[in-house]
C-alpha cells in the first residue's frame, strides 16, 4: 500500500501548492485559465503523443480492457439516465459529469496502484489506451459539437482535426501502430513539454479550490454525490461482476480489474470542463471527492479480494 499512499501524496502536494498560490493571491482565479490553456493546447497533446507512441495498441483488444469499457459504460449510462430525469437537462453538463463518473486517474494513481497493489504495471496499459483513444476523443468531439452553436455539417465533421488533444493522441497511435522508431532529438522536446501537462492540470485544480468551496449550495451537489457513489462504489462492483461471471477470469485478474475500477476520477475531466467552460464546479468536486473516497475503497477491496 505504500505506493498507493505515495501516489496520493504526490497529487495532494501539487494541488496544495496550487491552493496556496490562490490563497496568498500569487495567482488569481483567472490565472488557472492560462495554466489550463497551456496544458490543453501544448503540454497535453505532447504527453498524449509520447505515451501512445510508446504503447502497444494491441492492448485495446484484451479482456481486461473489455471489463474496463463495460464497467465505464454501466456507470456512465446510469448517471445519464438518473441525472437527465431528475437533476439537469444541460447536455454539456451531462456529458462531462457522466464521463467523469467512469474516467479514471490512470496516470497519477493508477500506476502506483498497479505496481504496488496488484503487482503488475501492465494493467495500466489497457485502461490508458481505452481512455485516450476512445473515451476522451468521444467526449471532446461531443463538447465541440455542443459548444459550436450553429455549425455546418462539414464544420462538425472536421472539428476533431482542429482539436490539439485529439491530434496528439491520433498521431501517437499511428506511430505505435506502424512501429515507427522516432529519433531521440524528436522525442526529447516533446517529452519535456509533455512532462508539464499533469503539474499544470493539478495546479489549476488547486487554484480552483482557492475560490468557491466544494459542494456549495446551488452548484449541483446532488449530481456530484451521484457521480461519487457510482465511481467509488458501483464501478468496482460492476467490474467485479463482469470479470468474475461474464468473463470467468481467475482470482488475480478479478482482483486487478476491481482495484483499477476503484480509481478516482481523473483531473483531465476538470481540464476539459475548464477548456469548454462547462460544468467546471461540478467536475472539480467530482474529481476531489472521488479522490478522497477512493483510498479506503481500494484498501477494502485489497482486504476482501487480494489472492493469497
UniProtKB/TrEMBL annotation:
GO terms for biological process: transmembrane transport. InterPro entries: Mem_transp_PIN-like, Na+/solute_symporter_sf. The lineage of its organism: Bacteria, Bacillati, Actinomycetota, Actinomycetes, Micrococcales. This is AEC family transporter. Gene3D superfamilies: 1.20.1530.20. Keywords: Cell membrane, Membrane, Transmembrane, Transmembrane helix, Transport. PANTHER family: AUXIN EFFLUX CARRIER FAMILY PROTEIN, SLR1864 PROTEIN. It comes from Agrococcus carbonis. One of its GO terms (cellular component) is plasma membrane. Signal peptide: none annotated. It is found in: Cell membrane.
Amino acid at each position: 500500500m505504500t505506493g498507493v499512499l505515495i501516489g496520493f501524496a504526490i497529487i495532494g502536494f501539487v494541488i496544495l501548492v496550487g491552493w496556496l498560490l490562490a490563497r496568498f493571491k500569487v495567482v488569481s482565479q483567472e490565472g488557472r485559465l492560462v495554466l489550463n490553456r497551456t496544458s490543453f493546447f501544448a503540454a497535453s497533446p505532447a504527453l498524449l503523443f509520447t505515451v501512445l507512441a510508446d504503447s502497444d495498441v494491441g492492448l485495446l483488444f484484451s479482456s481486461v480492457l473489455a471489463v474496463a469499457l463495460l464497467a465505464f459504460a454501466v456507470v456512465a449510462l446510469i448517471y445519464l439516465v438518473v441525472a437527465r430525469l431528475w437533476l439537469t437537462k444541460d447536455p454539456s453538463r451531462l456529458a462531462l459529469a457522466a464521463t467523469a463518473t467512469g474516467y479514471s486517474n490512470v496516470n497519477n494513481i493508477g500506476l502506483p496502484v498497479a505496481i504496488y497493489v496488484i503487482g503488475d504495471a501492465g494493467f495500466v496499459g489497457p485502461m490508458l489506451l481505452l481512455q485516450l483513444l476512445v473515451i476522451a476523443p468521444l467526449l471532446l468531439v461531443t463538447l465541440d459539437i455542443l459548444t459550436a452553436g450553429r455549425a455546418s455539417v462539414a464544420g462538425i465533421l472536421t472539428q476533431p482535426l482542429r482539436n490539439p488533444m485529439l491530434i496528439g493522441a491520433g498521431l501517437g497511435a499511428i506511430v505505435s501502430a506502424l512501429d515507427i522508431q522516432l529519433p531521440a532529438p524528436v522525442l526529447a522536446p516533446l517529452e519535456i513539454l509533455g512532462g508539464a501537462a499533469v503539474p499544470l492540470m493539478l495546479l489549476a485544480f488547486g487554484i480552483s479550490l482557492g475560490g468557491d468551496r466544494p459542494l456549495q449550495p446551488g452548484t449541483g451537489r446532488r449530481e456530484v454525490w451521484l457521480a461519487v457513489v457510482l465511481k467509488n462504489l458501483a464501478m468496482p462492483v460492476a467490474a467485479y461482476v463482469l470479470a468474475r461471471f461474464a468473463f470467468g477470469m481467475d482470482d488475480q485478474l478479478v482482483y486487478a480489474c476491481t482495484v483499477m475500477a476503484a480509481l478516482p476520477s481523473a483531473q483531465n475531466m476538470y481540464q476539459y470542463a475548464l477548456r469548454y467552460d462547462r460544468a467546471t464546479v461540478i467536475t472539480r468536486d467530482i474529481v476531489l471527492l472521488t479522490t478522497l473516497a477512493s483510498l479506503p475503497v481500494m484498501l477494502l477491496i485489497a482486504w476482501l479480494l487480494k489472492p493469497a
